[in-house]
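User: Can you predict the 3D structure of MTP protein? Sequence below.
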Amino acid sequence: FIQMLRSAKKRDVLQLLQRAPEEMLPFVVEAAVAAQSVASLAALSDFLDFGKEPKSLLEKFLYAAAFSPRPSGELLHLVLDKLDGKQLAPEVWETGMVAVGSLVGKLCQQQLCGLQQEVERGVETILGGLRGAKEEAKVVIYLLALGNAVLPETIPTLLDHAEEGPAAVTTAAVSALRRFPTQHISSEVKRAMRRIFHEKRKSYEKTCRLAAAEILLDNEPLPMDVINILLAANELETEMATFLLLKVQNSLR
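Assistant: Sure. Here are the predicted structure tokens for MTP protein:
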């Protein structure tokens, strides 16, 4: 079906979308995203009205885009255009932002960072939104999007939110940092994770402290970090202590 869509003209794909039975429509939308031909994306652009379509169909489109293994710049362009300047249901906006982060990350893995305007626009959409976000829930979504993008230049921003934000924000920022490969977990990142795990500046939620410990243990840990985490485990709840002990044992193996 996807192969057929790749060779179809825009008007044919659009007719297919317009005439598909309601229960088949999510399947056709998903297939049109997977096809990623100029015609299929143009047909989707004409067909999808983010002001009118049911939330479930819009979310299906955005999930299909986010999970696309090798997305194109045109697909990111389509997603950004559909999200831009519209009054969206909160669930659709949240899924859309996380999808933008995923698309940016995958395009950068294809060495397309800096080569496509869509990628730069996607990054600025996330960072600009994060700078202007006043509500904690929105800040969390932008941080999740940055976690999907895995861009080294955003690590300082993530560190700021990891140490200084309210509970949900710090947890989202540390979770985003966990997505980065070892070569980007610098001594500065490790110092911040130590402060979070050992609660040097303020109290942090359990999940945030565990994620910070995981970053320290998963990225060429120093012997002193292992020792300090084990010593701290004596004062933690049983579940947390057990988790950290298993983590250390796995590292030793």
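The CA atoms of residues 127 and 142 lie 8 Å apart. The chain has three domains: 1-47, 49-148, 150-252.
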